[in-house]
Amino acid sequence: MSTSSSETDPPPTPLEQLRTMAAVESMLTENLRHIEVYTMDGLLSLFWHGSPEAKHVVLACGGAMGGVLGPAEALYQELGVALADSNIGMIRVGYRAPNDTDKCVHDLVAAADLATRSGATSFITMGHSFGGAPALQAAVILQEHCAGVVTLATQSAGCEPAEDLATRVPVILFHGDKDEILPMQASELVRMIIGGGELVPLAGAGHLLVEAADHVRDRLATWIPEKFEAHTRQ
């Protein structure tokens, strides 16, 4: 009896599920690629810092309005440049459909799929505001390939699928005590949902964390390599 191709072919990967119509890329600098993926659901923009063969990659995403520079005075751009010197890649993900949690999670996982094809083996997800939920949900999907999660002034909505995640993956949550959009209680609630994590209160910082930019950048410049190294030793 013959077997149909649907029974023998592997399921499509997250990257294949994007229904890509076309893709184009350009080297902006020696260590920064810009990739545009045109899909039936919108344009996915990826800014990829570092070597494409890097085994450790940070996946960074913005808030409900999208964006790829990050809070805290373009944190994602600054970290991408700094981490490349340590052979850690970073992909800044420009959503196809900002504020659509399911699609934004898919975008992060598709970026991980793309990096895996070049040799990546472990990831840290990072998201600001609304982006905290996609970052946490993507970490659940990545499972043992996730070395950590960073949230920045996260919302609590959409974080429920990450229940007890912090018992398996290191999570650090930054939140300003002067946040005018999401109070610090949002990060405290997320800590309850995910079963732990390190909450870092930022005195005097608002939702964009501008007032604590240096502290957040310096802390993550150490925290990220440490978590990748620890993950490698597991």
Written account of the structure:
This protein is α/β, with parallel strands linked by helices and 234 residues long. The protein has one domain (51-233): Rossmann fold, CATH 3.40.50. The protein is 33% helix and 27% strand. The protein has six helices and nine strands. It has helices spanning 5-8, 71-84, 101-117, 132-142, 185-194, 213-233, and strands at 20-29, 32-39, 42-49, 56-61, 88-94, 122-128, 146-152, 171-176, 198-202. The protein has a nine-stranded mixed sheet with strand order 1-2-3-5-4-6-7-8-9, sandwiched between helices. A hairpin with a 2-residue loop joins β1 and β2. The longest helix has 21 residues, at 213-233. The relative contact order is 0.13. The mean pLDDT is 95.
As residue ranges, the low-confidence spans are none
N- to C-terminal distance:
45 Å
**CATH homologous superfamily placement:** Alpha/Beta hydrolase fold, catalytic domain
Number of discrete domains: 1
Biggest beta sheet summary: 9 strands, mixed
Radius of gyration (Å): 17 Å
How would you classify the quaternary structure? single chain
Q: Assess the beta-strand content as a share of residues.
A: 25-35%
- State the CATH architecture: 3-Layer(aba) Sandwich
Classified by CATH, the class is: Alpha Beta
Order of SSEs: HEEEEHEHEHEEHEH
Give the overall shape, derived from the CA principal axes: globular
Q: What is the total tally of β strands?
A: 9
Q: Share of helix among residues? A: 25-40%
Q: How would you classify the helix and strand content by structural class?
A: alpha/beta
How many distinct helices?
A: 6
Overall mean pLDDT stands at 95
Strand order of the largest sheet: 1-2-3-5-4-6-7-8-9
